[in-house]
Specification:
Blueprint (H helix, E strand, L loop, with lengths): L14 H27 L6 H20 L3 H69 L4 H51 L10 H13 L5 E7 L2 H7 L2 H17 L6 E6 L2 E6 L3 H15 L2 E6 L2 E6 L2 E6 L1 H4 L2 H17 L1
Helix pairs in contact: 1-2, 2-3, 3-4
Length: 344
């Protein structure tokens, strides 16, 4: 008993109940992490580059979820997860709408072209048949003058129909050439989208790897400069995806501005960016030191009309294929460099 006659109510759980609750909590966390991972794995790939970025973001969320130690951290993951799904849904809807519009426009164009060709063909056929009928009438006549005039009129009419058909065909060919040219441009645009990191607009890892393979195969000298944004994952857990996207674009604009115009820049991983440089290793190391100084700075980005000051800390390293000796060793050295920068 306690003063006032109130009774103490025990809030202690039996050891068995505590163990069951802990197991249930662990199972729920594991299922949630699996749900996030499954969402990434089974995302519909309307545009491969966008799906790749979506998977990277969800993989980062899964890691944050597995490392979460408080209710607030789990709730932050939930908010980010919902935002990622909403953003991907909206982009997918826009892409599907664009594809439908393109199909409708192409279908209408083909239909108009087919109708035009059919109409012109029918008109020419009718005219030629009339001229042939005139020839038959003239051929059946005994009047020489009538035969001559009939042949002359039919020849003139057939020649006119031929010229009209040729002009129509030239117009059709010109339209087809324009459509083929537009199709080539669309294919080139889609091909570039396949190798583009959509959030930042730079080349993705696949494109960078293909370029490195080409340079190694041709035995051309180059250096790979790798830059890691050390606190990017922390910022992603605190800020919206739209704000992070603007931040990275500002970072990359400064990154590219410090390199030669022909340097190829791409996204190597979630928080690492690479540049392929046509210079020797010593010069690349000098540039990497300058990049670390210039890129480790405050960045001002806008969101909903408000300015946000965010600070980034960069580390950098250089991989030289000449020093590695062969392609396999270079790839191993490159993987070691990426791991070292990530853990720095």
């Amino acid at each position: 008993m306690v003063p006032g006659g109130a009774q103490l109510i025990s809030i202690n759980k039996s050891p068995g109940e505590m163990e069951r609750l802990e197991e249930l909590q662990q199972a729920a966390a594991a299922c949630y992490a699996l749900a996030v991972r499954s969402t990434a794995q089974y995302a519909i790939e309307i545009e491969p580059g966008q799906a790749e970025g979506f998977r990277r973001h969800l993989e980062a969320l899964q890691e944050r979820l597995e490392a979460a130690a408080t209710v607030e951290e789990v709730q932050a993951v939930q908010s980010s997860f919902r935002g990622e799904l909403r953003d991907y849904r909206d982009k997918a809807k826009n892409q599907i709408a664009r594809l439908r519009k393109e199909v409708e426009v192409a279908g209408a164009w083909v239909e108009n072209l087919a109708s035009s060709v059919a109409a012109n063909g029918a008109d020419h056929e009718h005219q030629v048949k009339e001229q042939l009928s005139s020839l038959r009438t003239a051929a059946a006549s005994d009047n020489l003058e009538r035969i001559r005039s009939g042949i002359q009129a039919a020849a003139t009419g057939i020649l006119t129909s031929f010229e009209q058909m040729r002009e129509s065909n030239q117009l059709v060919v010109a339209q087809l050439k324009d459509e083929i040219r537009a199709l080539h441009q669309e294919i080139e645009s889609e091909r570039r989208a396949l190798f583009t990191d959509r959030p930042t607009g730079v080349w993705n890892r696949q494109k960078m790897d293909l370029r490195i393979d080409d340079l190694l195969r041709q035995n051309q000298p180059f250096c790979l400069l790798l830059v890691c944004v050390r606190d990017l994952k922390r910022l992603e857990s605190q800020r919206s995806p739209a704000l992070i996207e603007q931040l990275l674009k500002g970072f990359l604009a400064r990154f590219q501005g410090l390199l030669e115009a022909d340097a190829m820049v791409g996204r190597w991983s979630e928080d690492q960016f690479a540049a392929i440089l046509d210079i020797d290793a010593a010069s690349a190391i000098t540039i990497s030191r300058k990049l670390v100084r210039e890129l480790s700075a405050n960045y001002t980005v806008q969101e909903n009309g408000q300015s946000h000051g965010l600070k980034l800390q960069a580390t950098a390293g250089v991989a030289d294929p000449l020093a590695a000796g062969d392609a396999k060793t270079f790839r191993n050295k490159l993987a070691q460099l990426a791991a070292a920068l990530a853990g720095a």
